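WARN retry 2 of 3 for item q-0093 after timeout on previous attempt; input resubmitted unchanged.
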Amino acid sequence: MTSIDINGNRHVGSGSPQGGRFAGRANAAPAHSLAEASPTPLDQALSIINRPAPKGATADEKEIWASVRSNFAEQARMQPLSYLAHLANIRADSATAHAARYPAPINQTIRTYAEEFAEELNAVAGTYRHPERDPRHVGHDQRSAAEVAAEARAKATRTVSPVGLTQTRATVRASRRSPQEIRLVTLTWESVPATSSGDPLEVTGSANGAPIILDVVSGCPTMRIVSGHAIVIDNGSGYGIEVGDGATATVISGPGSKTSITAEPGSAVDFYPSPDSRGYQTISDSAAFSMHGVANHITLSSDRSRS
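OK item q-0093 returned
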């Protein structure tokens, strides 16, 4: 028996000649199977992505059309459609921001193609260019990300700049800190290289509630907040922050930073993005997550369409 879930994945029973538990994306299924079902959201998204340029388009317009859609077919097979729409929104915003670099006719074509592409993918994903936030995840703290970061740094009683993973792992364990110490740990891509195994950097907070402050200057491996309270000042890009059951985190995203948080069941997160921060945040239904301030390039997994 074959069924298709809301993400466009085709699930095939183990007794089927088509394969095991998961036979892959719906668009990769045999033609006779596809004929049995209406187009999935993934099918619709791929149709939008792979659509050729309009008839009569000039060579320049065809190039712009292709560049707006570049890399999306590959992403569509690996990422949720809501994340795909998020990427299209960023591309449309970037097209508007940089269109002035080009002559007027090309300027308008770039903006039009990017906006139309984003709107179509959002319609398929059930999202919106500027989404309506779930009220549960809208915070009301009026402080800016910069103000919260400055206040956090001022709390520190000791600053440490570890070198290498071994030293860093020891530095971010609660067992290595006195109960009264509020440690600020400076992390850089050079001093904290990615783990060879791909395992996240595990952070354990103090049992007495004293926070550990992680000041990410230029990148870091994915980190996981296992317990206690961590304050992450994020000026890096390209890594994730996982917050586990029972752990709490204050995440501050610096200007232009890409921040990706996974708030797991039983976790609590206060998120302070800068206006131009970007990234996709995955929030469990049972996590307490609040985003304070406005950041149009930030997408929450709970965002809803206004339509």
